[in-house]
Amino acid sequence: MCWVNYALGLRLVWRPSIWHKKTPRRRELLEPADRPRRNWKIAAVRKLSAVKAYGRDVERREKFAQEMSQRLGIAVKAVDSAAEATSDVAIICTATTASQPVVLGDSVSAGTHINAIGANHMRKRELDAATVAKCSRIFVDNIEQSRQEAGDLVLGFAGHEQRWDTVRELSSLVAGICPGRTDSSQITLFKSNGIAAWDLAAAVCVYKQAKERKVGRELPLWQ
To answer: 123: closest CA among 152, 147, 159, 164?
Structure first.
């Protein structure tokens, strides 16, 4: 379910209608090799012109870039560093297992939207404090959960606790209760940790529809 929210956050917060017409929609991807294929829901909600991908394993990132170039029909380039990946892009997506920042504020350009999904502990983060400080609009799945698990924000807001008052839940944006991006220079962030109850609710819905349509097959897991 969090991967769906990942794409939804991008669709609602990063708005091409206010993006400078001459800016190419390049995307940067930072994640380990076992996760990126699930992340390509992004390509379903935004038309991408090119992608830069970085991971620590050279062989895997090269293989990934080649595979996804063929699958998506756009240029996916494997790069040699996180800094190179995050510079001069419109969208940054992270889903790493890093405990220390891999995205640094100096390499994030004005107008960038960031989707961060990897760090799921209050002492782990993918974004440094400078990156978080540059974000004008920040959205999360659930604020109370984020106070406990979103290390990017817990550590990024250290000494500036009042910034929690500016964080909004994605559901508020979906419902039109609060605005998303309001001008093209803003840096926006969707920090997602995922909520297990949402995964369960989605699974129940899929199971119910499968039963009604008589599709799928029973698996003898507990027999």
So the answer is: 152
Q: Considering only CA atoms, give the Rg of the chain.
A: 18
**In the chain, what is the straight-line distance between the N-terminal and C-terminal CA atoms, in Å?**
28
> Rounded to an integer, what distance in angstroms lies between the CA atom of residue 70 and that of residue 79?
17
CA geometry: angle 8, 13, 19, nearest 5 deg: 125
- Predicted pLDDT at 214: 93
Does the structure show a pLDDT above 60 at 34?
Answer: no
pLDDT tens readout for residues 124-176 = 999 999 999 999 999 999 999 999 999 999 999 999 999 999 999 998 988 88
Residue 36 corresponds to which tokens in the numbers above? 């990126």
The angle at the Cα of 190, spanning 187 to 195, to the nearest 5 degrees, equals 170
- How far is 139 from 3, CA to CA, in rounded Å? 15
Query: CA-to-CA distance for 161 and 153, rounded, in angstroms?
Result: 10
Quick one: 2-195 is in which CATH superfamily? NAD(P)-binding Rossmann-like Domain (3.40.50.720)
Q: Tokens for 4, please give them.
A: 């769906």
Per cent of the chain over pLDDT 70 is 79
- pLDDT at residue 218 in the model: 83
| Per-domain boundaries in the chain | 2-195
The contacts of residue 134 (CB under 8 Å, 6+ apart) are 105, 108, 187
